[in-house]
Specification:
alpha+beta; 4 domains; six-stranded mixed beta sheet; 26 helices; MacB_PCD; membrane; transmembrane transporter activity; FtsX-like permease family protein; transmembrane helix
């Protein structure tokens, strides 16, 4: 039986090839996602390992992430004392900033899209475990404020060489610097900066820029003597520290710095694997369809096997053997394609500033295991039902000319589909409106169940749509249209299964179209209703910028007020919470802050405004106190008012303080946004040009009017939608392959019928038109079902998000109509190959085909 199954498989290589594509694409996405995230994780592990010493000394309560953002420092006098601790080989102070960016010769910022711009003092201190850090490989280390060194990658991308003047942008009081490049630095062990830029100053200059000129450091590295462990050195160093400082091992500091990144990597991996799952679900319809048609075409052969003594189990196993081989081949090709996909993802992220070119791709053991497990499992599961059906062919059927495959009753499919739809709908409702853990899983599982339920019931649900297409075809195309309509109706299970692959892809695309359009329109409405400011100044790469910019703008003619917005992260009950700093008087003139209790102007030094959701969580009201842990220690702040974050484009963090309170808490002074109110009668456009001239040397800073601000807020939504559409395109490609595959196999199955039609006068062009119309009916059926479900999903999700500020529900009608029309065009393209093959069949040979 296995020998027979193998010969059968080899005899139908072309028929099975297109089914393999579904497995290949799905497995490639799984493998590519795992390879990319493993590569990303390994690369950052190397960076974090070289960014800490054996023991790190820092102000108590700070971490590797927020150290440079605070004003708390370690005095330089402590460094010499730490170098004398037992077990210490040396101690070195470090000054650093994550918002120092290099501007290339073309006037564009190098990196910055997610990757930090690191500014630091020069130090030749070894990193933890004896790793060598940055080393000057060309030129020399900077010696004064007019000199600077860059890492080799940044210098190359910026187009700078030794002796050139470097254009730097910082968040310090000096917004623009133009020192001379005197050194090129590289990691001695070949490490990569992953798109981050490193700018090295002499220690005095770094202290002037980043710690207010104090003779102090953000942290101190203590290097262990040979044979001394990090834990032993940490204990000895901690015993020598005065109050207010702490010592942690380098491994601990590296883990702290990596924690948020690991979470981000996990999200990215999950995000990519979700789309891999979608591709596999869509692909499974193609596999089921292929095996169903192949088994139907081999029914006489399988009946003969039964007649000569093969048992049902043997027939089932032979079909399953073919599925295993197909899954293994598809998984192997998919694994190879996954490596290429990972390279493509790496190149894509490099355009956003996350450059992993210095890190080799990591193919961990789990990647091929997952690839083969997923590919083979999906194929075997998809082939199981056709295999079971093949085993039910009675041996006596081999004696007949026509063998009919036993078909399950459609009403059972309808019942099962209805059950899945009801259960999935209930899970969606529970996830959207109930207070349950992990609601996203409930919503996602519910959507999947509804999709599978509609797919199961689609042979019945699709009849009205396909029947309408048949009527239209008959009236427009006459006998050719009648034949096309009858072919689509002949096997409703096959037609519906083929359309279901396209249905799932378009359902998700439609859902995202509604969410995206509604989110963008909600942003526009919120800004129009609540933003009074005439101009907005922000940093295009999302980091703080120098306060000198606001100082200069405030002195500009025509400017009535400048409202500064600053962001920070503080600790509340051990959790990191967003904190904002504002001037309530100037902010009230620039924006409408929706208050639930109290007034914006009730905010004063030593008080706090709190969001309504946070107030509910903490069960506090106006006049109560909340305790927040800042870099300078814990503070008990009186609640002066409660605001809502719904429709609030200004105060979106849970806590808001005055600028003075934020500064006293220990955060560095740097602005994130400026809201500019002009004087009555001032020419806003002319004032915008003036401010743009003032910030011409700061390509990181942009000046926008209200319309430009709205466009900036919509940009992340557009980027996310483009990414999602690109990933869902994978599912649509598989769906198109499904239509091609089904039509091609259907033509093979109907070879004698095609010959008879040609013999009685059906022309080649008429035959091609018949198959083309059949393909259009399948594609439009999938589009109608997909768009219809996408409308339901999108409207349901938007209704559930109304309380989150997304009040505008927009249905992009023209876009959805375009999807249906595009589906018809896809049907035309999918029919090209099968139609040409049918038209080229020899009439006499076709009639003689069994």
């Amino acid at each position: 039986m296995f020998k027979a199954a193998w010969k059968s498989l080899m005899g139908r290589k072309l028929r099975l090839l297109m089914s393999t594509f579904a497995i290949v694409l799905g497995v490639a996405f799984v493998a590519g996602s795992l390879i990319f995230t493993d590569t990303l994780s390994r690369s950052f592990d190397a960076i974090f390992a070289s960014s800490v010493g054996d023991v790190v000394v820092r102000p108590t309560g700070t971490s590797a992430d927020d150290g440079p953002a605070t004003t708390r420092t370690v005095p330089a006098s402590l460094v010499d004392d730490l170098a004398e601790v037992d077990g210490a080989a040396r101690a070195d102070g470090n000054v650093s900033s994550f918002s120092t960016f290099v501007v290339g010769e073309n006037g564009k910022v190098i990196g910055g899209q997610g990757a930090p711009g690191i500014g630091a003092n020069w130090s030749d201190a070894p990193a933890a475990h004896g790793l060598e850090g940055l080393a000057i490989t060309e030129g020399h280390a900077p010696r004064n404020g007019d000199e600077v060194a860059l890492d080799a990658g940044t210098a190359e991308r910026a187009g700078f060489e030794i002796g050139d003047t470097v254009h730097l942008v910082t968040s310090s009081a000096e917004a623009v610097l133009r020192p001379t490049l005197v050194g090129i630095a590289e990691f001695a062990d070949g490490g990569s900066t992953n798109g981050a830029t490193i700018t090295v100053f002499d220690t005095t200059t770094a202290q002037d820029l980043f710690v207010g000129g104090k003779d102090a450091f953000n942290d101190v590295w203590v290097t262990a003597d040979e044979g001394v462990s990090q834990e032993e050195l940490r204990d000895d160093v901690a015993a020598a520290l005065p109050a207010g400082f702490e010592a942690v091992t380098g491994d601990t500091a590296a883990d702290e710095a990596a924690s948020e990144l690991v979470e981000a990597i996990s999200f990215l991996s999950t995000f990519l694997l979700i789309f891999a799952g979608i591709a596999l679900v869509v692909g499974s319809f193609l596999i089921v369809n292929t095996f169903s048609i192949l088994v139907a075409q081999r029914s006489r052969e399988l009946a003969l096997l039964r007649a000569i003594g093969a048992s049902r189990r043997q027939v089932t196993r032979s079909v399953m053997f073919e599925a295993v081989v197909l899954g293994a081949v598809g998984s192997t090709i998919g694994l190879g394609l996954g490596v290429l996909l990972a390279m493509g993802i790496r190149a894509l992220f490099a355009t956003f500033g996350l450059d992993l070119s210095g890190q080799d791709l990591i193919i961990a053991a789990r990647t091929p295991i997952a690839a083969y497990a997923v590919g083979i499992l999906v194929t075997v599961v998809a082939a199981y039902i056709p295999a079971r059906r093949s085993a039910r062919i009675p041996p006596v059927a081999a004696l007949r000319d026509d063998v009919a495959m036993p078909e399950s009753a459609l009403h059972w499919r309808l019942v099962a589909g209805a059950a899945l739809i009801v259960g999935g709908g209930a899970a969606m409702v529970a996830g959207l409106v109930s207070d349950i853990p992990r609601p996203g899983w409930w919503v996602g599982g519910g959507i999947l169940a509804v999709l599978l339920g509609v797919a199961a019931a689609s042979p019945v649900i699709s009849r009205p749509v396909v029947g309408l297409a048949a009527v239209l075809y008959r009236r427009i195309y006459g006998s050719v249209g009648t034949l096309a309509g009858q072919n689509a109706l002949r096997n409703p299970r096959r037609t519906a299964a083929t359309a279901s692959a396209l249905m799932i892809g378009l359902a998700l695309v439609t859902t995202m179209s509604i969410l995206g359009s509604s989110a963008k329109d909600s942003v526009d409405k919120t800004i129009e209703e609540n933003f009074y400011g005439d101009l907005v100044v922000s940093n295009v790469i999302g980091v703080p910028f120098s306060t000198s910019i606001a100082d200069k703008i405030e002195k500009t003619d025509g400017v009535a007020s400048v409202s500064r917005l600053r962001y920070a992260i503080a600790q509340v009950d051990g959790d990191g919470q967003g904190v904002m700093g504002v001037d309530p008087t100037s902010l009230r003139a620039a924006a409408n802050v929706p208050m639930v209790e109290g007034e914006l102007t009730d905010l004063d030094d030593g008080k706090v405004l709190i969001s309504d959701s946070r107030a509910e969580d903490e069960n506090v009201g106006v006049g109560d106190t909340v305790t927040i842990s800042f870099p300078n220690g814990k503070e008990d702040l009186e609640v002066a008012g409660i605001y809502t974050t719904d429709n609030n484009t200004v105060l979106f963090y849970p806590y808001t303080l005055t600028l003075s309170t934020l500064a006293d808490a220990g955060f560095q002074a740097a602005d994130n946004y400026l809201l500019i109110q002009t004087e009555p009668g001032a020419d806003v456009a002319a004032l915008q040009r003036t401010i743009e001239e003032q910030t011409a040397e700061l390509p990181t800073v942009t000046v926008k009017d209200q319309q430009g601000f709205a466009e900036e807020q919509r940009a992340p939504i557009d980027q996310m939608l483009l990414l999602i559409y690109a990933l869902l395109g994978l599912a649509l490609v598989i769906a198109v392959l499904g239509i091609i595959n089904t039509l091609a196999l259907s033509v093979i199955e109907r070879t004698r019928e095609v010959g008879l039609l040609r013999a009685i006068g059906l022309g080649r062009s008429q035959l091609r038109r018949m198959i083309r119309l059949e393909a259009i009916a399948i594609a439009v059926l999938g589009a109608v079902l997909g768009v219809g479900m996408g409308l339901v999903f999108g409207l349901a999700l938007m209704s559930s998000l109304a309380d989150e500020g997304l009040e505008v529900i927009t249905v992009p009608t023209l876009q959805l109509v375009g999807y249906v029309l595009a589906a018809g065009f896809v049907g035309v393209l999918a029919a090209v190959f099968p139609a040409r093959r049918a038209a080229r069949l020899d009439v006499l040979q076709a009639i003689a085909t069994e």
